[in-house]
Design a protein that fits this description.
alpha+beta; Immunoglobulin-like; Ferric Hydroxamate Uptake Protein, Chain A, domain 1; 4-stranded antiparallel sheet; rod-shaped
């Protein structure tokens, strides 16, 4: 025996759909309230509340969608819900939070200018000397070849004797002798000076310059008689390869020390 299957006509299907909608009215209303058309956008125009000028590069966002305003202060954002909240932020202005009315397609936002606190900046720098020799000293200091002692370091350390400044320079040894303190450049001794009755084994005489004037090698008067408060800067070159060309003379292989006095005011 064959059982006749019920046939659902288009008219019957439409009737069933209508009855289902009447039975659940809240669901249809909710779907209509939370799902606007996919093509809905809001055009935002951001201006300065003080002068009306367009505010470029302001950050604007709705929900998870963010963008920035163009040079004319304009941006376009999609609306995904009936009720949305727009947030606008720009450095130099207070934040703005705007509720977007249902059906709105354009929105004007005026930002209030606010003062931005900045951390204090202290400008420091050394006074550049006027004399060409001292200008060349600071130029070599900036290049960094050799070891240097500046006036600022001398004033901070307040040494009792000038030779005290050399005790912290790598590769320089201060030896006490009957003629006063003597500087020795460790590791800079050429073979011709390694043995001799005049100097200790392994030492050789350092070449001194005071304000560009050369003195007899190992002349004790230069490092021992100059007062630290008279000095603008010191240059120490342990090896011949470090010595500036203009001071690379005979005897420079044992080390060169240049001492520059302060300018007279």
């Amino acid at each position: 025996m064959r059982i006749a299957r019920p046939v659902l006509t288009l008219a019957a299907a439409a009737a069933c759909t209508a009855l289902h909608a009447l039975a659940i009215p809240g669901r249809a209303a909710a779907q209509q309230a939370t799902a606007p058309a996919a093509a809905e956008y809001v055009a935002v125009h951001v201006t300065d509340a003080a002068n009306g000028a367009a505010v470029a590069d302001a950050e604007v966002w709705i929900g998870g969608t963010r963008t920035r305003t163009d040079a004319g202060g304009r941006a376009l954002l999609p609306l995904r819900q009936v009720r949305e909240t727009l947030m606008v932020r720009r450095l130099g202005y207070g934040d703005s939070l705007v509720e977007i009315a249902a059906g709105a397609t354009t929105l004007e936002v005026a930002l209030q200018p606010v003062a931005v606190p900045m951390a204090g900046v202290e400008a420091t720098g050394r006074r550049m000397p006027m004399s060409p020799p001292l200008q060349r000293f600071y130029a070599r200091l900036d290049r960094g070849h050799g070891s240097f002692v500046t006036r600022e370091q001398i004033e901070r350390r307040k040494p009792r004797r000038l030779t005290d400044l050399f005790r912290e320079i790598p590769g320089v040894r201060v030896a006490n002798t009957s003629r006063g303190d003597r500087l020795v450049m460790t590791g800079a001794t050429p073979a011709m000076y390694r043995v001799g009755p005049r100097w200790e084994a392994g030492d050789c005489p350092v070449q001194y310059y005071l304000d560009g004037i050369s003195y007899q090698p190992d002349f004790a008067g230069v490092p021992n008689d100059v007062r630290p408060d008279e000095v603008e800067g010191i240059e120490v070159y342990r090896r011949l390869s470090e010595v500036p060309v203009e001071y690379r003379r005979r005897g420079a292989e044992c080390g060169v020390v240049l001492i520059w006095l302060k300018e007279r005011t």
